[in-house]
Write a structure and sequence with these properties.
heterotrimer; A alpha/beta (318); B alpha/beta (392); C alpha+beta (97); B: 392 residues; alpha/beta; Rossmann fold; 40% helix; C: 97 residues; alpha+beta; Alpha-Beta Plaits; elongated
Chain lengths: 318, 392, 97
């Protein structure tokens, strides 16, 4: 065990103890997304406004007349956390300029699930990123429309069984590959784009802190394990996130002004089977299916490594 | 203030909105309302208005961004028509539920299909049940006056509801009229700075847009209904103040030559101005006919309607929208419902005119008034009529 | 177990817009009632690293006066993440009686 891992072991003691996302929320046992939100809030601090799309987190955290949020929070509808966020950002900016609110930085952070970001919310997100609002968008991706009962989304991985693309005699679950949203947002020339996972909490929190400092748009794609939807044991939530990174399914990287950096680089990728066999949603896959997935994951991983090694930052190119 | 300025009404609306000092404007262009956001962005670009103009990528995002801005405590404004209104329709009832005092100007245009960019009321009539305050302007001066009034009514602490102000697309938006504009000082004196009830800011933490279980939802809806009904008090107060300061009167239902009238036309929007010409002509002929002009649509002015139609034998309610397969025109069905329990009720007929921008000349209003006089004796001839359709 | 706040007796008590001005009031609802198993700490093995605290989705684990970590059973849903992630194996999940 090298010194960095040792440090991580004791780093929890250094983290801000305040819980901006309190207990009492109605998330499932072992919910990775709730954990990720809790960690994100610790990294953001109290000068933050959260804009939340409809989804698991919004529903479980704010049942009138209670709220789990110790931060200012607004929810409007499903596809619009990015556009509501754009409005909050503009409103706060104008009010500060006119001297109507305190003259200090308050960061607007819009959050949504994969449903509210990849699919129904993609237009609003694209518009907000293109208009360069000072907005951090964090997508908590549990790879299906979990809140409505595990339906297929653009973020659902190939071969996963969901309620609207189920495995059956005539189907192996989702027959399309997962949309690569980090790349789509990077193509909007967003200065900071990162992937993260709650199983690497300090990496995630550091990325949130970094993104918070950006004066402009930034985007973090956080994988969030859902034991209910993935059909995994609730205690395996952290383990599943680690396996996703260790098998190369969900590599953790940053794109800063066009420069790619791998944050966690396993010496050798673990085989896909280690990841897939623990999840009920992949139970139906045959060895041939797993081979197809392995080939594709290797390809995507190599594509990413290629970018990490060869692409220069925009500053170097201009 | 004393000089009339001739200007396209949409531009006048934009100039008046600018006088109201909005903080954030988020709007998407759609004919015939486009000149409003365009001119506002001109005003901002010229430095005449300190605001953020967000060029949102859709109407849904326009109203959403306004929600965000209003939630942050800023004064927010948007404008749209027809399909744009339907695209943001998902957010529309949420705005009133969240008690965000957003002002929206709607340049009324027919709903597609088939696609038609010209005026009728099918867009706003699809949004009857959403809990917004809704008013109709019949001419340019009313657009200017009611724009300022809308912000004041919306932001009043006893109201805190969004307001939509309706003006007929093309018939008003693209028409040049002479109007009196209040000065910036007069608007500042009339419309105080917005002080939000709550705002998303770390200095006073609030969660907005929470979830309501069935156990509480009915009470929430009751509260929403009561606050909209109660807003009429504030609307009348604001109109009284406007009359005192600017000398122009506003009432929920305006009467035109209704003294001794046995037949009434009831109109909403700019068609009322053409109807007035018809009334003048019919009065010259000796027909006891008058006109009611509906200005306040929501909250619906039950009392004023009932008072206005006492001693009347027949009313022809003019609508610029139809509820297909339903009870005729929306204004007609609501007026009829308002009068159902009255001991003495006039005969009420529904005449749907001018759909999709079809011109309705003075002669048509005359024909409708004559029909109303006829049915006063014989009773209604059909459930409702889409007036002036070629063919039988 | 403390019950969640009772519903208001009158619709006029509803806060405008269903806004909630009580941050963290979700704590009125004790999710601990959901548990089927509970974490039991063996402090002799605990190295006080805080990994259980970091990985708890409820954020219900905190340190006592001696620095040992303990879960607040009012909120602990018994997911087992803390026991699974504990390096020295100081936490065991035990069936609720």
């Amino acid at each position: 065990m090298n010194i960095v891992e040792n440090f991580d072991l004791y780093a929890p003691r250094l983290v801000d103890k305040e819980e901006h996302f309190s207990a009492g929320h109605r998330a499932c046992q072992g919910c990775g997304e709730a954990l990720a939100i809790r960690l994100m809030c610790k990294a953001l601090g109290k000068d933050t406004v959260i804009v939340n799309a409809t989804g698991c987190m919004e529903v479980v955290s704010t049942m009138y007349p209670t709220t789990a949020w110790n931060l200012p929070w607004i929810h409007v509808a499903f596809p619009n956390s990015a556009s509501v966020g754009a409005g909050v950002e503009a409103g706060l900016k104008v009010l500060r300029r006119k001297g109507k609110i305190a003259d200090r930085d308050v960061k607007t952070v819009a959050i949504g699930g994969d449903g509210g970001t990849f699919d129904i919310g993609l237009q609003a997100l694209s518009g907000a990123m293109e208009r360069r609002h000072d907005l951090l968008y964090v997508c908590f991706d549990n790879e299906a429309y979990m809140n409505t009962g595990i339906q297929r989304s653009g973020a659902t991985p190939f071969g996963a069984s969901t309620t609207t693309a189920p495995a059956g005699a005539d189907s192996t679950g989702k027959s399309e590959w997962k949309k690569n949203l980090a790349e789509i947002i990077a193509a909007h020339n967003v200065p900071y784009v990162a992937t993260a996972c709650h199983s690497y909490p300090f990496d995630f929190m550091n990325k949130v802190k970094k993104a918070r400092k950006i004066k402009g748009p930034s985007f973090i794609h956080c994988m969030s394990v859902c034991p209910t939807g993935w059909r995994t044991a609730s205690e395996d939530t952290i383990k599943m996130g680690r396996l996703a990174v260790e098998t190369g399914v969900f590599p953790l990287y940053e794109i800063e002004n066009g420069k790619y950096t791998m944050n966690i680089k396993p010496d050798r990728l673990r085989p896909m089977e280690d990841y897939l066999k623990l999840q009920g949603r992949f139970r139906h896959l045959t060895p041939a299916d797993i081979e197809v997935i392995q080939t594709r994951v290797n390809l995507e991983y190599n594509k990413l490594l290629n970018k990490v090694e060869n692409l220069q930052s925009w500053e170097d190119l201009s | 203030m004393s000089e009339r300025v001739g200007m396209e009404i949409a531009l006048a609306a934009a100039e008046t909105v600018a006088l109201c000092r909005p903080d954030v404007i988020a709007a998407y262009p759609i004919t015939p309302n486009t000149h409003i956001p365009e001119h506002l962005s001109d005003i901002v670009a010229e430095g005449r208005l300190d605001a953020d103009f967000i060029c949102v990528e859709s109407e849904h995002s326009a109203l959403s961004a306004c929600c965000g801005a209003s939630g942050a405590g800023a004064r927010a404004f948007t404008a749209t028509s027809s399909q744009g209104l339907l695209y943001m329709a998902e957010v529309v009832p949420i705005v009133s539920a969240m008690r965000l005092p957003i002002v929206m100007i709607i340049g009324n245009r027919a709903l597609s299909g088939p696609i038609n960019i010209w005026n009728d009321h099918s867009d706003i009539m699809s949004q009857r049940d959403v809990g917004w305050i809704s008013m109709f302007a019949a001419n340019g001066q009313e657009v200017v006056d009611m724009t300022v009034q809308s912000f004041k009514i919306a932001e009043h602490r006893d109201v805190m509801l969004p307001v939509n102000l309706n003006l007929d697309g093309f018939q008003l938006t693209h028409v040049v009229e002479p109007m009196l504009f209040p000065s910036q000082e007069e608007v500042d004196a009339f419309l105080p700075e917005y002080e939000p009830y709550a705002a998303v800011h770390p200095d006073n933490i609030v969660s907005m847009g929470t979830l309501a279980l069935p156990e509480i939802f009915n009470e929430v809806m009751k509260a929403k209904d009561e606050v909209l009904k109660d807003s009429k008090k504030v609307i009348l107060e604001v109109w009284k103040e406007w009359e005192e300061k600017f000398g122009r009167t506003y009432k929920p239902v305006e009467s035109y030559k209704t003294e001794g009238a046995e037949i009434l036309l009831l109109a909403i929007g700019s068609m009322a101005e053409t109807a007035e010409v018809a009334i003048d002509e019919l009065r010259d002929r000796g027909m006891p006919v008058g006109l009611l002009k509906l200005r306040l649509w929501r909250p619906f002015p039950f009392e004023e309607i009932r008072n206005a139609v006492k001693d009347v034998k027949a009313i022809a309610v003019l609508d610029r929208a139809v509820s297909f397969g339903g009870p005729g025109g929306p204004v007609f069905s609501e007026v009829r419902s308002a009068l159902y329990d009255e001991k003495v009720r006039p005969t009420i007929i529904s005449e749907i005119i001018g759909l999709g921008g079809r011109d309705v000349p003075v002669g048509d209003f005359i024909k409708i008034a004559e029909k109303a006089a006829r049915v006063a004796k014989t009773g209604p001839e059909e459930e409702y009529e889409i007036f002036g359709v070629r063919g039988s | 177990m403390e019950k969640a706040k009772k519903w208001p007796e009158d619709w006029q008590e509803i806060i405008p817009g269903c806004m909630v001005f009580r941050p963290g009031s979700a704590r009125e609802y004790h999710t601990g009632s959901w548990r089927a198993q509970r974490p039991v700490y063996d402090n002799s093995k605990c190295i006080k690293c805080g990994m259980c605290y970091i990985f708890c989705p409820e954020g219900c684990i905190s340190q006592d006066a001696d620095g040992y970590f303990i879960a607040d059973l009012d909120y602990c849903k018994g997911c087992g993440i803390c026991a699974h992630e504990c390096w020295p194996g100081a936490i065991t999940m035990v069936e609720e009686g």
